[in-house]
Fold this protein.
Amino acid sequence: MKVIQASGSRKRAIAKCTLRLGTGIVRVNSQLLYSIKPDLIRDRIEEPITLAGDVAKQVDLLVRTSGGGVSSCAEAARLAIAKALAQYDKNLQQEFLDYDRNLLVADVRLKETHKPNRHGKARAKRQKSYR
């Protein structure tokens, strides 16, 4: 079996996942998945692996993330892992879609850009004075 590569993105974060035959080891940025803190972020990344069950124990996953914040990196990694597992075992594709569509389809929303001639937030208006 050859190596499978998949990528996922969320906001500014990009994750690239490499899947090889192995024993179920998952590394995110060279760090074992089970040593990632906070737990909420780890659980988010772990979702597709839990859904895959025995299939995930047959392969090793190496994920590299860059850009964005902690949460969007986790979302991107989750997407990349799910895509790689779905390529490896076609039966998982429908299971992932039934559970959460965002496991296989990227959320393309981005941060709203700042408007010209204004400072502050993207939708902030200039203060108006009536007196």
Summary: Helices lie at 39-52, 70-88, 91-99. Strands lie at 4-10, 13-21, 26-28, 31-32, 59-66. The chain has a mean pLDDT of 91.
